[in-house]
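Suppose you are handed only two things: the residues of a chain and a line of SMILES describing pyridoxal-5'-phosphate. What would the bound structure be? This form records exactly that question and the answer produced for it, so the two can be stored side by side and reused later without any lookup.

QUESTION INPUTS
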Amino acid sequence: MSDRLALEGGRPAAHRPIPISKPLIGEEEADAVREVVLSGNLREGRRARELESRLAAYIGVKHGVAVNSGTSSLLAAYMAALERGTEVVMPAFTFVATASAAALAGLKPVFADIRLDTYEMDLEDAAARMSPRTSALVLVNLYGLPGDARAYRRLADERGVRLVIDSAQALGALVDGREAGAYGDLSCYSFYPSKNITTGEGGLVATDDDELADRVRLIKDHGQRGPYVHEVLGLNLRMGEMEAAIGLVQLSKLERMIEARRRNAERIARGLSGIPGLHLPVEPQGRRHTYNLFTVRIDPELYRVDRDRIVEAIRAEGVDARVYYPVPLHMQPAFGRRGTGDVKLPNSELAAKTVFSLPSHPALSDQDVEDVIAATTKVLDAYLKR
Ligand SMILES: Cc1ncc(COP(=O)(O)O)c(C=O)c1O
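ANSWER OUTPUT
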């Protein structure tokens, strides 16, 4: 059989591919940017302050500090809260910035394995990897699903370490009705165009702690409290006013966009249910998944080809399926490929070989959702062992 399984009776090529993510932006965001440009003041200002206070209120914490990316939010949070040279226990199966920002802040990432149902760090494995040098646990809310924040909060408190939550993909994810990031000492968000809201590039550090908020504010602006007096080492991680203006419009649409993601995900899950060897996303009791990505996993022994061939075939059907993430961090050259030596994290390694993501973003039409289901079903059916 050919790899290219052309969809019979498919839609015109002009509609394809259906992108893995697409921000819902338009006239309102354009007007907001125009207003900033015409004001002549592009520097971080009153719109950034307003975005910070609105996001802090939405998240349910005292402080929001706007920065210029999710990566910057992690870097500033790590620099503000943790002592250089200490260890931070984090999942190996996440986007690189969770760990690279820690390493760049002088910390040592210690990689723990994940659970295969929710893709969050495995609590027991994380606990086992803590040492007297551990200063923090990092919970990553992957794909928009909140991890078990209460359990991580308890573990961090018992061991006297910080809890940092990487909620880059999960603004609006809830645990028992409360924003998932609010369980952390610090939580970090990204507003990259694929995220739950976008500012283009942008991010936020959220915290209830006055001192930590003050330190993050200093770090994001060269460590200066007054003009050219530098209290601590910092960087320029500031958010610009155009980005903040876009963020304010986006935030006003956030709940509607999450509802659309959840509706799309529910329909896709229904459409794909019953396919042998296919694990659909789960939503544990008490948690609200925001479906930043609709990520599935295959049982490789039930298919005649590997995951990469399946993804390629779905893409040939006009659906931009993608893999997040094909190489776990303990096996990355940047972290010394420790996984090729003594560290073995079997679930992270299996997930990296068997997951793929489908679009569930709010810009999908009803027909797009049908097409995502049809393309995926067709490819999996064609490659299923019989
Ligand atoms: C889990 C996670 N952490 C951190 C980041 C970094 O965010 P940004 O791309 O805004 O720097 C991302 C973004 O892709 C992410 O998915």
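WHAT STANDS OUT: Residues 1-10 have pLDDT under 50 and may be disordered. The longest strand covers residues 134-140.
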